[in-house]
Write a structure and sequence with these properties.
single chain, mainly alpha, 10 helices, membrane
Amino acid sequence: MSRGPARLAAATGLLFAALFVAALVLMHRAPGLADPDARYAAFQANGGDGILVAVGLYLVPLAGVAFLWHMTAMRALLDTLSPPPSTMAHGLNLLAGVLFVAMLFAGAAAAGAPATASYLGDAAPLAPDVTRALTAVGYGFVFVFAVRGAGMYALTTTTLLRTAGVLPRVVGVLGYLLAAFLLLTASTRPAAALVFPAWVVLVGVSLLAHARRAPSTPVTASAAT
């Protein structure tokens, strides 16, 4: 295994996890689907929470960029492994990662639209029904579509790393369990979305440990010339 891509994949994965969790915590200050109209009205009238939600909204694209960086480094790492990754799993891995980022962006934009309109666009406060509808659309994008893309990415990545002997058995089993949760869960609780960054951290720590044990790749005479 090449140490460079492994360390880069781990570092960018940890960066993504930190940004994603921070964005999720800040955006969770917005009213949820089960909250009454009074909660939505209070949110629109209180600039503090709206500003925090807007800050969380701006962190989402940074988390997405960090994930794309992580995914690219991970795929570069997979290309150095033996046996080579299967074409189908490798393709699904790419599509699942792109799907996750696209749905995450769309969902965050919808859920954060009331805060953006009221506190960044100087628009009149939105009616509770409109805000709740936008929140529902955002939750659908994130918890139905983005989480499934994350689950498929976790499943394919765990499979490819486990096949190459990079992940220990215990980490592989945990990775499969977390991927199954992401693929099968029907929860719209924000805590459910924390499973994916937890998987990223688990795999990142395992990659760093494996890279530390892996011998350096010797430079052959043909490569030197």
